[in-house]
Structures are given as C-alpha cells and as structure tokens.
Amino acid sequence: MSTFNWIIQLVYVAAASCFVLGLHLMNTPATARRGNQLSTGGMVAAIAATLAIIIHAGTISATGWIVMLAGGLLGGGAGLYAARTVQMTAMPQLVSIFNAVGGGAAALVAIHDYINLAGRAAGPAESITITTLLDVLIGAVTFSGSIIAAGKLQGLISAAPVTFPGSRVINMAAAAIAAAASVYLIVTPSVPMLLVVIAAALVFGVTMVLPIGGADMPVVISLLNAFTGTAVAMAGFVIGNWALIIAGALVGASGGILTKLMADAMNRSLGNIMIGGFGTGDGGAAAALGPGGDVRSIAADDAAIQLAYAQKVIIVPGYGLAAAQAQHAVAELAGVLEERGIEVSYAIHPVAGRMPGHMNVLLAEANVPYPLLKEMDEINPEFPRADVALVIGANDVTNPAARRAGTAISGMPILDVDHAKSIIVIKRSMASGYAGIDNELYVNPKTSMFFGDAKTALTELTAAVKTLVA
Ligand code: NDP
Fold first, then answer.
1. I need a labelling partner for 236 at 20 to 30 A (CA). Which of 206, 267, 430, 453 fits?
2. CA–centroid distance, residue 410 to ligand 1 (Å)
3. Whose C-alpha lies nearest to ligand 1, atom 39?
C-alpha cells in the first residue's frame, strides 16, 4: 500500500472513531453538543479524504468536478438552511426528508455501480450483485417510504392510516415482484430487470407507510432511519469505502435500537405497527367531543395559590409547550417556585412532543438543569407524593385510558399524573391530542383546567405566584 493510501486509511479510521465517540457522547444531554461537534469533525475529515482520493486519481473531468461541487454546495446549502430554520415541532418531517435523501443517494450509488458493471463484457460478480441489490432495495424503499412519512407529518397527506381496496395486496405483490426480480437479476444480470426491482421497491415503500398513522409515525421514522443507515452501509460495500460502511452501520444499529425503545415506550410490537391502524386521529373530528363528566375550569389566581403553597410540584411538559414555545416561561415559573422552597421536577415521557427527546431539547434550551428532568420510570412512583402535577400541553402521555383495553392508546405506558394529590392542566381547549381520543384525566375530580395558550398562561401564573406572600 502506498504512503498516500496509508494516510487515507488512517484518516478514515480517525473519522470512524469520531463517529463512535460522538455517538457515545450523545448518551447524556451534558455532552451531547460535544458529541455532535466531534461527529461533524469526523464527517469533514471523511469528505476531505474522499476528495483527496479523487484528486490523486486524477480521473475526474472538469464537467465532473463542476457537477460534484455544484451538487455538494446545493445539497449542503439546502441541508444547512433547513436545519437552521426548522421549527422544533417540524423536526420529524425534516428527519424523514433526510432519510429519503440518504436512502435515495445510497440507492443511486448502487444503480450507477451496477449499470457501469453491466456495461462491461464480464458482468457483475455475485457478491457485488447481492450488496448492490440490497442497497437498491433498501434505499428505494426508504426513499419512497420517507417521502410519504414526511408528507403525512407535514399534513400534505392524511395523518390517519390510508387504506384502499386492494392496498394490502398491492403491498404484498410489490414485495413478491421485488424479491422475484432480485433473484432473476442475480442469475441473469440485466438493466431492465434492475428497473423492475427499483419500481417494485418504490411501490412497496409507499404502500408500507400509507396504512400507518398517527402516533405510530415516530416509530416508522426511526425504522426508516435504520433502513437509511443499512442502505448507506451497503453502498460502502459496493464502492469499497469502509468509512461509509461504519457510518452506515452505526446509523442502522442506533436507528434499530431507537425503534425498539420507542415501540416499547408505546407498548407496541413492530409487526403490530407495520400492520397499521393505531393513532387514527389527528385531533380533528374527535376534538370537539370532550370526555363525559364535569370539567372544572380555574383562573391564574386559583392555580397560583395551589402551586405557591405546595411542597412538591411535578411539571409535565408535552407537545403544547413546544407549540407555544413556552420553555422559558415554564423555567421562570419553576425558578419562582424554587425560590419559595418548593421542590420542582419535570416528568419526561419518551414520546412526549413530536420527536424522541423533544422535551429534553426544549427544556435544555431554557437552561433547565438536567438532574431535574426525570424519566417516566423514575418519576411515576413520585406522583403520589406530589401536591400538584402541572400538565402543560401534554395530553396522550397522561391519558389514563391507556390503562384500559379497547382504546387507541391501550397499553401505552403513561405518566401517572392522576396519582398526584391535585392536577392543573394548561391547554387551550378540550381538544384531543395526537392520538385523537378524549382524555379522562380532564374529568377527574382532582383536576382543574386552566385554559389558555401555554406561554400566556404560564406568564400569568408566574405573575400571580409572585404576588403571594411566601
Ligand atoms: P398531544 O399531542 O397528545 O397533546 C398536545 C396538547 O397540547 C393538545 O391536546 C393541545 O390541546 C395542546 N396544545 C397545543 N398547542 C398548545 C398551546 N399553544 N398552548 C397550550 N396547549 C397547546 O401531546 P403529548 O406530548 O401528550 O403526546 C405526544 C403524542 O404525539 C403522542 O400520542 C405520541 O405518540 C405522538 N407523537 C410523538 C412523537 C415523538 O417522537 N415524541 C412523534 C409523533 C407523534 P389544545 O388544542 O386544547 O390546546
């Protein structure tokens, strides 16, 4: 191996080490930012090494350079703009679009490689064909599936499960055609048959995601993320770039683990999710109904008295806190309560908000100390000792209906908010949450509803607490 190649391989080792270490640092919020920076450094090094290989080989034409640099600048610019301007609540859509481009790019690498090889007299070797095929199959499924998922999350396609007569048959037929065409392709290499594989995989991706709806979408996004990583790892095998293999494998493995954790957090099996039918509501029709029973509404002054004279308060943030951008307002209220000697902690449900870790990121933005953020298993036993559970824009993750069979969220572990001595819920109306079902917590005799936008309500509440003597 030449000195140049040695240096390149060393840079790839360093880049891969940065990815692994970066991922490790993301284990805790305190080091997550450094982990992100380290991984970015690794990626910059990997890109630089790849460019060095291209320059060293000297085979690329001027047009090739223009196309490559234009693509890099355009893609990089679009990615940077999207990442910097995206609203936190629209993050799942963005991740889905990134999954689509990742899977699509990996598939294109394999398609290019295959067509190049097929154009040669010898035809592709079997081992290359298998990794190329897997790359094309997984990449194409990820591409079309992620586009549909992003459309659903953005509201361009119904968020509810979309089924039509024969949709399941089309899905199974697409899988069968993709599998049969792949086998044929291994035996008899042919470009037209590759196109059949691509078309079948694209149809499979669409018909796989369409019937999945509502609250199952985050799990699907995570699964598609794992697919993207696997497709990228396959692309690494195809072009013999092991930095790509390692990066893809890391994304595939972490996406797979996250998928499992999220499915567990909702007490759902992956097979069950893929069959579809859960979380059919989008807060529309069911929103107006409201649960049966009396609802007690209170104003800021009453809520302030309950909070100000409590010893222990557990804050339960949810999607509404993010939508109202009320993270600073809640941190301020918590500060005022703490000044009065009240013990304050935050109950974090794994799927509160619209993406995993949504509440952690949001509260970190407002400099809420990490130790105050308690995971569901840790905080649930503490609710019976809490004088007040202050629920801010959280709905499904607090709904006791999950404990009963026969509801859309049955079996989903929830925060045991109803075990607190009293409950204050801040939200704008009696509208349902993401799963589209009424919340029994709101008619609990211990519950008071403080209707209003989370940010406005919290500001009023903080002002009211400040007026009370300690
Ligand atoms: P929900 O979606 O169940 O409920 C949010 C509540 O916030 C709504 O009922 C709404 O009521 C209220 N709200 C909205 N805007 C405001 C505002 N400006 N001020 C005050 N309240 C507001 O949220 P949860 O966090 O409890 O649950 C998350 C749900 O989303 C789960 O079903 C989960 O499975 C799903 N999901 C989770 C993802 C994740 O990865 N975390 C991703 C995608 C879905 P009102 O309109 O009356 O104000």
1. 206
2. 17
3. 355
- Going from the Cα of 35 to the center of ligand 1, the distance in angstroms, rounded, reads 29
Q: Which of 427, 429, 450 to mutate to test the pocket of ligand 1 (most atoms within 8 A of CB)?
A: 427
* Closest residue to atom 30 of ligand 1, CA basis: 434
Structural domains in the chain?
A: 3-275 (no CATH), 286-469 (3.40.50.1220)
Q: 323 near 353, Cβ under 8 Å?
A: no
pLDDT of 273 reads 77
Q: pLDDT (tens digit, 9 = 90+) per residue, 61-118? A: 999 999 999 999 999 999 999 989 988 778 888 999 999 999 999 999 999 888 877 6
At 124-180, the pLDDT tens digits run: 545 457 899 999 999 999 999 999 999 998 889 887 888 888 888 999 999 999 999
- To the query of whether residue 396 is one of the catalytic residues in this protein, the response is yes
